[in-house]
Design goal:
Maltooligosyl trehalose synthase, domain 2; single chain; 8-stranded parallel sheet; 13% strand; TIM Barrel; alpha/beta; 950 residues
Length: 950
């Protein structure tokens, strides 16, 4: 297995293609990166900005350059000795434009009789009888009847097949039903051609064959194959006939035109409506379909449909091209997107390991998996680890002052008037999404559980309504994304989480009969029940596994994308995989997490920013500084709100923005405010767009489902007044000195976070562009184009300093970079130093011991020090934390502020001198005291990376 030493993530799209990625490979190689980490590379929905909406698993993306451009990228990587980690998407595909997804187009044309019907997670026998053998398509911009009678749904004939056009979307028409349209007007055609005309006879024969083909409910393999042959033969014959016969072409055109109806004449659409009623799909308004959707989606995204990758034929089809690229050596590692969405994650990983292996050599594999605090990856999963959200929150927590949790909460309460606990906010957020955008899936689960209860006389008295209510409460109380129950049983951790959720739900709902909770526990944990048949047991296991696929989306949408926008005590806590319930981490906690990481998953990724994080890694560091100065923070935000009182708008008796939204705005500005000279014209649209998204995610005054234009407009106006209005100069006069100090302190925390990422057990991952300051907000802001030319040029100017071996000139040069920290060169420099060190000493970082080092002296609790050691080589990272209380007024930290603080080095690491890979200083460690003084270590730079000197 090729193990990467450091990965660099790029977001591929039409604006950044395979060729563009190849162009930056030399720069990444000079930086010290060993593996390029690409977003999905397969054919995606046209115009895709990210590639997760795949439409063809067998082709490389044409928008990215196709096979030839990809081949050049692979050749460039090989020439630089670099590997390639690729994001794969086994959970879902795009259905937004069915004409581009051949599998899905076939399903819509043939329903359950499609050879691809089993590829997608569709319930062909849903609770609503009108949807039997149909799939609900919520893609209309208005109510179906209105769209129809406005003439927005029109039939066309394309290449011998009847299709339905709606805007840029094309849907197939069941070929067996096409004669309903094409037989209209035949009397006139007979009169013109005569009954014995060969063209008429051929048309009638085609229509007879279409009507005689197997129906969509005939799913026996031989009938499916017969239908495929019949429809394709009829399509080819009709296309030829239309091309050869002007009379037939005119008849088809007139028949289709008559069926399309005339706007303003509702009755003229009866024929088209009758045709659509017998299709394998039912069109619906996107806003009102959430209670009846009968296919599994990616979260609540209607345009992404779940795949049944647990089926061998689906797995093989989804992974065939990726497997070929792995076997060719083009791909050296994979990142599995949204593993928790799969029906059987462990089974999938076992199959993936086998499918991608080259003989006995597996391919490097990591998964996107969000671990809640206290949760571990199942130890029997065949992979190298996660994409690193667990590390992100472990390291970020070091720079949040847990001693001030109460003070920060009081500042928020005083400003906003809110008093609710985060646990209650999260519970309500999960309930809200289960009652709206994720309602259909809950209905399906309730009916399935009702069927299980009816099969046993001891549980048949539970009503459907009571089961639905109970399920909603248990899921709202669920403490993790999901469990991992399968046919082989469950782990102890699964049982603990189920017991926890049921216990919490019971306490919140004392009026619910306790026995119904016991029933659910018995079903989920497969408790023995006398008289239970194997078929009944299989239904219970299947229910538990489907429930697991639902709790994850509820957690993601209800907590990350709802509660995290409602509970704004400290925004740096509201991060993917994090929780406001854990206000900071101690060094002991951090070291324990790293110790476990080295023991169990030593090669997993370590991220601090991704395309999914809520804010950039350096914006997060800045916001965390507020936890060190809660009293000052509370005072300044009260001054700012008084200044902006007149900028608020009253809507229906309510203030817009409300105080909680205003609090979020000020924290956001602190996090993203650019260093140096600020172009407000560039900042304003980014903040305005972010606040609009935040409002819709919070779902209190507006939402994606029901946009409140008036409220959103009032908040946008408030943002404009803050940044460009009459009082904006007064605001900036107060705001900018405060944010300059916070930013300077945040810089120290950012570099500390970077240094720890470089030395912790695992593979440091760098999201595109974050080698300079990353002050982005949630997507789409964090997916903006990166100027790699600027970064490459900066690195080139730093090369003389990177090559400098004399301590004096190097120390002076680094000090100048720190003095000019706003331009980001110091972050780029530390990144290059650390990555090149990893490449030079790979054994230290892959296999070396992880040794937390003791700190002593007045500021001992403000230092984190760790050593990585393997025979003959040592690397030590020393970084500051929580320094606001003894920093200068401008946020700078003088060496003498460290007083007598020291790092104690173990005796076995003191045999050779150490050299700082950043500042170049050389340190001799005396065997009698074995100490490193902080005032000497951090004289030139905020952090130190020491290595055994040669």
């Amino acid at each position: 297995m090729r193990l990467p030493l450091a990965t660099y993530r790029v977001q591929l799209n039409a604006a950044f293609t395979f060729a563009d990625a190849a162009a930056i490979v030399p720069y990444l190689d000079r930086l010290g990166v060993t593996d390029l980490y690409c977003s999905p590379i397969l054919e995606a929905h046209r115009g895709s900005a990210h590639g997760y909406d795949v439409v063809d698993h067998g082709r490389l993306s044409a928008a990215l350059g196709g096979d030839d451009a990809y081949g050049m990228l692979v050749a460039t990587l090989r020439a630089h000795g670099m590997g390639q980690l690729v994001d794969i998407v086994p959970n879902h595909m795009s259905l937004e434009r069915p004409q581009y997804n051949a599998w899905w187009d076939d399903v819509l044309e043939n329903g359950p009789a499609s050879p691809y019907a089993g590829f997608f997670d569709v319930d062909w026998q849903p609770v609503k009888p009108e949807l039997r053998h149909k799939v609900l398509l919520p893609l209309l911009g208005d109510q179906y009847g209105r769209v129809l009678e406005r003439g927005e749904l029109t039939l066309v004939v394309r290449d011998g097949a009847l299709r339905l056009r709606y805007g840029e979307t094309e849907l197939p028409i069941n070929p067996r039903r096409a004669p309903l349209v094409l037989r209209q007007g035949l009397d006139g055609l007979r009169a013109r051609l005569g009954d014995d005309h060969p063209e008429l006879r051929e048309l009638l024969a085609i229509l007879d064959d279409l009507e005689g083909m197997p129906a969509i409910v005939e799913t026996a393999p031989e009938r499916v194959a017969e239908r495929q042959r019949a429809k394709e033969d009829a399509r080819i014959r009709l296309a030829r006939l239309i091309a050869a016969s002007p009379a037939i072409a005119a008849h088809v055109e007139s028949s289709v035109e008559a069926a399309n109806g005339r706007a303003g004449t509702p009755a003229s659409f009866d024929a088209l409506h009758a045709l659509l009623e017998v299709e394998a799909y039912r069109l619906a308004y996107w806003r009102t379909a959430f209670h009846e959707i009968n296919y599994r989606r990616f979260f609540d995204v209607n345009a992404l449909i779940g795949l049944r990758v647990e089926r061998p034929e689906v797995f093989d089809a989804v992974h065939a091209r990726i497997r070929d690229l792995v076997q060719q050596g083009a791909i050296t590692g994979v990142r599995v997107d949204h593993l928790d969405g799969l029906f059987d994650p462990r089974g999938y990983l076992v199959r993936l390991r086998a499918a991608l292996a080259d003989g006995d050599d597996p391919v490097y594999t990591v998964v996107e998996k969000i671990l809640v605090p206290g949760e571990d990856l199942p130890s029997d999963w065949p992979l190298e680890g996660t994409t690193g959200y667990d590390f992100l929150n472990d390291v970020a927590g070091l720079f949040i002052d847990g001693r001030n949790a109460g003070a920060m909460r009081r500042a928020w309460e005083r400003f906003t008037g809110h008093r609710e606990r985060f646990a209650d906010v999260a519970y309500q957020g999960k309930r809200d999404v289960m009652e709206t955008t994720l309602a259909s899936e809950l209905n399906v689960l309730a009916h399935a559980l009702n069927g299980i209860s009816e099969a046993d006389r001891r549980s048949r008295d539970f009503t459907l309504q009571s089961l639905h209510h109970m399920l909603r409460e248990v899921i709202a109380a669920f403490p993790a994304y999901r469990t991992y129950i399968d046919g082989a049983g469950h782990a102890e951790s699964d049982a603990r989480r189920i017991e926890s959720a049921i216990g919490r739900a019971r306490r919140r709902n004392p009026g619910i009969d306790p026995s119904i909770f016991d029933f659910l526990r018995d079903v989920l944990l497969d408790r023995p029940v006398s008289g239970l048949s194997e078929a009944d047991r299989a239904r219970r296991v299947a229910f538990a596994m489907k429930l697991q696929q639902y709790t994850g989306p509820v957690q993601a949408k209800g907590v990350e994308d709802t509660a995290f926008y409602r509970h704004n005590v400290l925004l740096s806590l509201n991060e993917v995989g994090g929780t406001p319930l854990s206000f900071g981490r101690s060094p002991v906690d951090f070291h324990e997490a790293n110790r476990r990481r080295r023991e169990h998953w030593p090669h997993g990724l370590l991220c601090t920013a991704t395309h999914d994080t809520k804010r950039g890694e350096d914006a997060r560091s800045r916001v965390s500084v507020l936890s060190e100065i809660p009293t000052e923070w509370g005072r300044v935000v009260r001054r700012w709100t008084r200044l902006h009182a007149s900028a608020c708008t009253e809507i229906d008796g309510e203030r817009a923005p409300d105080r909680n939204e205003e609090y979020l705005l000020y924290q956001t500005l602190v996090g993203m405010w650019p260093p140096g000279e600020v172009d407000v014209a560039a900042v304003l649209p980014r903040v305005r767009e972010y606040m609009t998204k935040a409002l819709r995610e919070a779902k209190l005054h507006s939402s994606w489902l029901h946009v409140d234009d008036a409220y959103e407009g009032a908040v946008a106006s408030f943002v404009e007044q803050v940044l460009t209005g009459e009082r904006s100069a007064d605001f900036r006069a107060m705001f900018e000195p405060f944010v300059r100090r916070v930013a300077r302190l945040g810089m120290s925390g950012s570099l500390a976070q970077l240094a720890l990422k470089l030395v912790s057990p695992g593979v440091p991952d760098f999201y595109q562009g974050t080698e300079l300051w990353d002050l982005s907000m949630v997507d789409p802001d964090n997916r903006r184009a990166v100027d790699f030319a600027v970064r490459a040029a900066m690195l080139e100017t730093l090369e003389p300093l990177l090559a400098e071996r004399h301590p004096g000139p190097r120390t002076e040069g680094v000090a100048r970079l720190v003095a000019a920290w706003e331009d980001g060169r110091i972050k780029l420099f530390v990144t290059a130093c650390g990555l090149r060190l990893r490449r030079e000493l790979p054994d230290v970082f892959r296999d070396g011991e992880y040794l937390p080092l003791e700190t002593t002296g007045e500021r001992a609790e403000h230092v984190v020090a760790v050593a990585r050691h393997v025979a003959g080589a040592t690397v030590i990272a020393v970084v500051p934390r929580l320094v606001a209380t003894f920093a200068e007024a401008d946020g700078a930290l003088r060496p003498e502020a460290w007083c007598d603080t020291r790092v104690v080095v173990p005796r076995r690491l003191t045999e050779r001198p150490l050299r700082d890979a950043i500042a170049g200083q050389r340190f001799e460690i005396r065997a009698d005291d074995r100490i490193l003084r902080l005032d000497a270590l951090l004289r030139a730079a905020p952090v130190a990376l020491l290595r055994t000197a040669s």
